[in-house]
Amino acid sequence: MKKRLKVRCYILHKWEKNICLLLLFFSILSLGIPGKEVKGEPNGKRKVPVVYARNAVAIDAKSKRVLYEKNAHLTTAMASTTKIITASVALRYGDLNKKVTISSRAASIRGSVVGYKKGEEITIKELIYGLMLKSGNDAAIAIAEGISGSVEEFVRLMNEYATQIGLIDTHFESPHGLDSGKHYSSAYDLALATAHAKENDLFNKIVATKDIGPGSEGFTRGFHNINKILWQVAGANGVKTGYTGQAGKCLVSSVNMEGNDIIIVVINCPGRWKETAKINDYVKNTYEIKDIVEENESMKTLSVEHSKDKLNLKSKKSIKIPVKKGSELDVKVKLPKEIETPIYAGGKVGTLNVYEDKNLIFTMPLYSDNDVRKNKGLFRFFK
């Protein structure tokens, strides 16, 4: 809230008036400086920074909670950040030790390249390193041809994979991301795709690699990672740069925060390194990671009418999520009013809901830890 400035009128000499007007100008100007933290506000609140990007988002990789967003669901060209999905599909479906013969199509592709020559034989694993560290368009074409037999069939696989992981504002026409009419995504979809990609340990290892020497892993050449964020932000562990005329400068980053990875995406962002660091600072100043439940923690035990068996509900995984500093948290188990028996061990029964200052911020299913034997009719939980 801007301060009110009380200006009283006095009879002043001309030079005194000029000084007063000058002081008043700078006082008003200082109130409108963007990006300044608001200190002393309740619940650890911080002023949301002004981020100079067309599209941006920050999410927690584990819970998928959105921590910052700007035009996050607006579709846009996304340049070589496409290769996050290319790598994910290659790691899921490819034989990493298979050698691919570099085709003329791969060797002649424009844009950023590793420099593979027609006829070279390169393993899928090395191609993925070249794809993610050097942003090689030639590696993208070779991966597509090596796994699916053609670029077109691999792109079909990419679109299928995108649907499977819940990307609703994304469509691919290539494995490299050069501008084309129906090749697009959104900042949020790229963050979500990256969160899924980081469930793969080898993906994490690749995108966090700064340098790998020639001969390492049996590779034909060494690679230096062009992603400067790995050097500029403490805790950064990936992921991918991008640039085309339509997409502008892009960056998808992952930064470790108290054991959780925060995925930050900026698209069409001239100062992508600085703006990513700005978003990262905002997230760390505004949020802290809280342990909610442990893996296999018992959340509730209850009786089922007309059954001797107790129903024990557990979480299948540990949950650590970012919450606003100083906020009031409430964790509730929500149960259905009625359920048909039998209830089998491992079956979903109810949800665990997390509230921050009375607002729902996270929900996940709970599972039965045991069988509840069948009886006739419907049974009501005693809560």
SSE topology:
Blueprint: H1 14-31, E1 55-60, E2 66-70, H2 83-93, E3 99-101, H3 104-107, E4 121-123, H4 124-133, H5 137-148, H6 151-164, H7 187-197, H8 201-208, E5 211-212, E6 223-224, H9 229-232, E7 236-244, E8 248-257, E9 260-267, H10 272-286, E10 287-293, E11 298-303, E12 310-314, E13 319-324, E14 329-334, E15 338-340, E16 348-356, E17 359-368, E18 378-380
Antiparallel strand pairs: 1-2, 1-9, 3-4, 5-6, 7-8, 8-9, 10-13, 11-12, 12-17, 14-16, 15-18, 16-17
Question: What value does the average pLDDT take?
Answer: 88
Do you know the CATH topology of the largest domain? Beta-lactamase
How many β-strand stretches? Answer: 18
Give the CATH superfamily of the largest domain: DD-peptidase/beta-lactamase superfamily
- With helices defined by DSSP (H or I, 4 residues minimum), what is the helix count? 10
Q: Could you describe the largest sheet, including whether it forms a barrel?
A: 5 strands, antiparallel
CATH C-level class of the largest domain is: Alpha Beta
The number of domains is 2
Rg (CA only):
26 Å
Shape: globular
Spatial strand order of the main sheet: 2-1-9-8-7
Structure in words:
The chain is of the alpha+beta class and 383 residues long. It has two domains: 55-290, DD-peptidase/beta-lactamase superfamily (Beta-lactamase); 294-380, D-Ala-D-Ala carboxypeptidase, C-terminal domain (Peptidoglycan synthesis regulatory factor (PBP3), Domain 2). It has helices at 14-31, 83-93, 104-107, 124-133, 137-148, 151-164, 187-197, 201-208, 229-232, 272-286, and strands spanning 55-60, 66-70, 99-101, 121-123, 211-212, 223-224, 236-244, 248-257, 260-267, 287-293, 298-303, 310-314, 319-324, 329-334, 338-340, 348-356, 359-368, 378-380. A hairpin with a 5-residue loop joins strand 1 and strand 2. Helix 4 runs antiparallel to helix 5 and helix 5 crosses helix 6. Residues 1-17 and 24-44 have low confidence and may be disordered.
